[in-house]
Specification:
Blueprint: H1 2-18, E1 20-27, H2 32-44, E2 49-53, E3 56-64, H3 65-77, E4 81-82, H4 86-103, H5 113-121, H6 125-136, H7 140-158, H8 163-169, H9 175-186, H10 190-195
Antiparallel strand pairs: 1-3, 1-4, 2-3
Length: 207
């Protein structure tokens, strides 16, 4: 019996060693620069990618577990993190979708958030909403609002748009609605925030 068990262990180890990965899920990728950095790390390790998106990399050729650990270590050195757990991958996908929606595709903000996330994840919104609340200790809606407020801050700092133009761009019903939400999240009115030159924005991935 012990010999059989030993052979089983050896076989299991061989199977694990043979396991290959053709897709990477990466936490803390929030902007175009992040994609450039990840691409550079892959290139330095002679690993080709078909697509590099926020939070996800599709590899041209599968890599083994040794290569994966090498990439994991190098990503961690620059502030990224490989995600292995399925539930964590889904949470990161939801965050990435919201970040893209708010910070890169604001013309699409008129879509219903629950429908948008369900369509993109191919999952029931109630399920992903409950999972998000469980793992993040906040609702998807609250995270979405926080991202919108961060975008408001960014646009105010750029000082290229009026508050009414910002409200329109981010699909607020009115300037009053934007201002009320801004104060609820930050504790400041938009005008006070603008006057505080030393105020700095939090990194998107720290929200």
């Amino acid at each position: 019996m012990s010999q059989i068990f030993c052979k089983f262990n050896i076989l299991s180890k061989k199977i694990i060693q043979m396991e290959t990965i053709d897709k990477l899920f990466i936490k803390n990728m929030v902007c175009h620069r992040c994609k450039v950095v990840v691409g550079r790390i892959l290139k330095m390790n002679k690993i080709e990618a078909n697509h590099i998106e926020l939070g996800e990399v599709e590899l041209k050729n599968p890599i083994d577990s040794d290569q994966l650990e090498l990439i994991r270590n190098e990503l961690e050195e620059v502030g990224f993190e490989l995600i292995d757990d399925k539930r964590s991958k889904l949470i990161e996908q939801i965050k990435t979708l919201i970040i893209q929606l708010v910070h890169q595709e604001n013309n699409e903000l008129k879509v219903n958030l629950s429908d948008y996330l369900s369509e993109q994840t191919k999952l029931d919104y109630k399920y992903i909403s409950n999972l998000f609340s469980e793992m993040e200790a906040q609702t998807i809606e609250k995270y979405f609002i926080q991202q919108k407020i961060e975008k408001v801050k960014e646009l105010m700092i750029y000082d290229e748009l009026s508050l009414s133009e910002i409200a329109f761009q981010l699909n607020y019903s009115s300037v009053a609605h934007l201002s009320a939400q801004f104060k609820k999240v930050t504790g400041l009115t938009p005008s006070v925030f603008k006057q505080l030159s030393k105020h700095t924005r939090r990194p998107i991935d720290k929200i």
